[in-house]
Automatic annotation (TrEMBL), chain B:
<keyword id="KW-0812">Transmembrane</keyword>
<feature type="compositionally biased region" description="Polar residues">
    <location>
        <begin position="1"/>
        <end position="10"/>
    </location>
</feature>
<feature type="region of interest" description="Disordered">
    <location>
        <begin position="1"/>
        <end position="31"/>
    </location>
</feature>
<keyword id="KW-1003">Cell membrane</keyword>
<feature type="transmembrane region" description="Helical">
    <location>
        <begin position="336"/>
        <end position="357"/>
    </location>
</feature>
<keyword id="KW-0813">Transport</keyword>
<keyword id="KW-1133">Transmembrane helix</keyword>
<protein>
    <submittedName>
        <fullName>Carbohydrate ABC transporter membrane protein 1 (CUT1 family)</fullName>
    </submittedName>
</protein>
<feature type="transmembrane region" description="Helical">
    <location>
        <begin position="108"/>
        <end position="130"/>
    </location>
</feature>
<dbReference type="InterPro" id="IPR051393">
    <property type="entry name" value="ABC_transporter_permease"/>
</dbReference>
<feature type="domain" description="ABC transmembrane type-1">
    <location>
        <begin position="104"/>
        <end position="353"/>
    </location>
</feature>
<keyword id="KW-0472">Membrane</keyword>
<feature type="transmembrane region" description="Helical">
    <location>
        <begin position="35"/>
        <end position="64"/>
    </location>
</feature>
<dbReference type="GO" id="GO:0005886">
    <property type="term" value="C:plasma membrane"/>
</dbReference>
<feature type="transmembrane region" description="Helical">
    <location>
        <begin position="142"/>
        <end position="163"/>
    </location>
</feature>
<dbReference type="GO" id="GO:0055085">
    <property type="term" value="P:transmembrane transport"/>
</dbReference>
<feature type="transmembrane region" description="Helical">
    <location>
        <begin position="217"/>
        <end position="248"/>
    </location>
</feature>
Length: 272, 374
């Protein structure tokens, strides 16, 4: 009995530590600047103000950053759904020559750490003439080996008899894939959509090297520069925390709606 | 993007080509299958090739060239300098070498602290949350996992606020009478601080020499700076949720019977945890440690958002230094060389991870006999 209550006490303390940073961000974003520094622990603002949000939305480039992030995340997600399922289907179901080599290459490519590729990716983006464009922000992010694996595993679990029936009806490979197999793969497609959206929404380093233009700044890049003082704003914690809160909201909504699926997928993706 | 999209027409044109010269029956079908397969994977191959394989080749060239950032790195004006960029970093004796050594030191302490702590914490969380009789299991899991899905930029902004000189963390420390440091702006090494308590404030003569990468021993043993500690806490905070999920999955694969058998044999809770459960989690622990090692050598986002390498370069990491050297100082060859050395470090660790994953395939019973023999 004593052991059980000790477990609960420990869990509650830990949960408070994990949740507190998010609660304090929301609370502080509604405080005036001075109060934010004077009472950094209070979860209820003494003077409630939306000044930070007004500044973010009315007097800064924040709405532009938000728009850019939305565009990039949506296009990347749509692109990955299509390309990952195409490649995953071929690797799972089309016994073509060279499949083994491609699969091996994919495993090798997955091991290359993203941070190491910053300079090289910049070089290629420059050479292709897509520096300072949405194409440069989006196309390199479409390469996603982990998503291909998720789709491949899913397609392997679909009974082959389904495709046989379609093929006997005279459907070609793409028709079979598009109108028979793909609709069955909706659960896996939802998983990779969530992971893709989350991944591209939270991406930072690629956006840093893919453009310089102020018109193409995304949320992560804009808020990071705001935070490190590159943009020359002093402390202004309510403003910075308000920005952090807003950039967390889309991912948080996605997380709470699809919680179970996200948790299963991230445990599975690392394991396989 | 649209250019690489295979259209339905493209594939269906291929499909009915039955009349192609075939050595035996069904040969035409396999040709069309080959084509369909390649058409399906081609968009992915193109993107992966352009943005993963080609970049590596280009960067390899830049790291042995004197390209200055203007025009194509393959232009005839760009000269081959051999291993000069690498040599400057490893034996040059200048500022480049000192910065590189400093970044390696900083990141090594980061890895050394983050990996064991995040593994232990995530295992602990998993064991706590996995209890069958626990109420509010879902809530606790969500609370611990949530930091893992949010952006590192947002978390860094929050942590910078929590760890200001008069911030939340120092207020809490003041409750128990501790006067907290000026966290993010404090460049003092933790080990130097401890030595200072014992009256050792300056390097003893033995530690003044600098045989390893041009950085004096005294600097190597400085420990992570107080500033770096903030990033260490943050890494543990954000990654423990993900690894907790891995441990929960592994715990659920362990059958309850084994635990019950141990209970029947009279083992108490603690004995069951340390003698039964943890040994059976060994493969997962190994995986988590290797993934941790790979991840912690790539710290970039947090440093970019937080300190940009400061104070006094004590949060400089190889990943950030590589970025800074190339994009800010325009010293592309050297930046690429740093990236390749970092790559080598991470590849060595990835090989270790593949090895760890292979062990997962060993049937359970075999693993036990192996363990028993040892």
């Amino acid at each position: 009995m004593a052991a059980t209550s000790l477990t609960y006490a420990l869990l509650v303390v830990l949960a408070i530590i994990y949740v507190f940073p998010f609660l304090i961000s929301v609370a502080t974003s509604f405080k005036p600047d001075a109060e934010a520094t004077q009472s950094p622990l209070s979860l209820i603002p003494e003077t409630f103000t939306t000044a930070a949000y007004e500044r973010l939305f009315l007097n800064s480039d924040f709405p532009l950053w938000f728009r850019n992030s939305v565009i990039v995340a949506i296009v990347v997600t749509a692109g990955r759904i299509f390309f990952n399922s195409l490649a995953g289907y071929a690797l799972a179901r089309i016994p073509f020559k060279g499949r083994g080599i491609i699969f091996g290459a994919l495993v090798a490519v997955m091991a290359v750490p993203g941070v190491v590729l910053l300079i090289p990716k910049f070089l290629v983006i420059k050479q292709l003439g897509i520096y300072n464009s949405f194409a440069g922000l989006i196309i390199p992010l479409l390469a996603d080996a982990a998503g291909i694996f998720i789709m491949k595993n899913f397609f392997e679990s679909i009974p082959p008899s389904v495709e046989e029936a379609a093929r006997l009806d005279g459907a070609g490979t793409f028709r079979t894939f598009w109108s028979v197999v793909l609709p069955m793969a909706v659960p896996a497609l939802v998983t990779i959509s969530i992971l893709s959206f989350q991944g591209s929404w939270n991406e930072l380093s690629h956006f840093i090297i893919a453009s310089q233009s102020p018109d193409l700044v995304t949320l992560t890049k804009g808020v990071a520069q705001l935070s490190s003082g590159t943009l020359g704003q002093g402390t202004q914690y309510p403003l910075k925390l308000g920005a952090a809160v807003i950039m967390t909201i889309p991912v948080a909504i996605l997380f709470f709606v699809f919680q179970k699926r996200i948790m299963n997928a991230s445990a599975g993706a690392v394991k396989e | 993007m649209t250019a690489t999209t295979p259209t339905p027409e493209a594939t269906s044109v291929v499909a009915p080509r039955r009349g192609a010269p075939a050595p035996r029956r069904g040969g035409g079908r396999s040709t069309s299958r080959n084509l369909a397969g390649w058409v399906f994977v081609s968009p992915m191959l193109l993107i992966l090739g352009l943005f993963l394989v080609l970049p590596i080749v280009m960067a390899a060239w830049v790291s042995i060239s004197d390209w200055g950032g203007r025009g194509s790195p393959f232009a005839s004006t760009v000269g081959f300098v051999g291993g000069e960029n690498y040599q400057k970093l490893l034996t040059g004796g200048g500022l480049a070498q000192k910065d590189f050594a400093t970044s390696l030191r900083n990141n090594a302490y980061y890895v050394l602290l983050v990996v064991p702590l995040q593994t232990a914490l995530s295992l602990g969380l998993a064991v706590l949350v996995n209890r069958r009789a626990l109420r509010g299991r879902g809530f606790f899991r969500t609370a611990f996992y949530f930091p893992s899905v949010t952006s590192s930029v947002a978390i860094t902004v929050v942590f910078l606020f929590l760890f200001t000189a008069s911030g939340a963390v120092n207020r809490v420390l003041a409750w128990v009478g501790i006067h907290g440091p000026n966290w993010v702006n404090d460049p003092r090494g933790v080990i130097h601080i401890v030595l200072g308590v014992f009256g050792v404030d300056s390097p003893p003569p033995a530690l003044q020499s600098a045989p390893l990468l041009g950085l004096p021993w005294w600097q190597w043993i400085a420990g992570p700076s107080v500033s770096m500690c903030v990033f260490i806490f943050m890494a543990i905070f954000t990654t423990s949720g993900t690894f907790m999920l891995l441990f929960i999955a592994a715990l659920q694969n362990i059958s309850g019977e084994i635990d019950e058998a141990a209970q029947v044999d009279g083992a108490n809770g603690r004995q069951r945890l340390f003698r039964v459960t943890i040994p059976m989690l060994r493969p997962t622990i190994f995986t988590v440690v290797t993934l941790g090692l790979i991840g912690t050598w790539q710290v970039f986002d947090q440093i970019y958002t937080g300190t940009q390498g400061g104070p006094a370069k004590t949060t400089l990491t190889p990943a950030f230094l590589s970025y800074q050297t190339s994009f800010i100082s325009q010293n592309w060859g050297q930046g690429a060389a740093i990236a390749f050395i970092l790559f080598a470090i991470i590849v060595a660790l990835t090989v270790l991870q593949r090895f760890a994953l292979r062990e997962r395939g060993v049937p359970r019973r075999k693993r036990f006999t192996k363990g028993d023999a040892a």
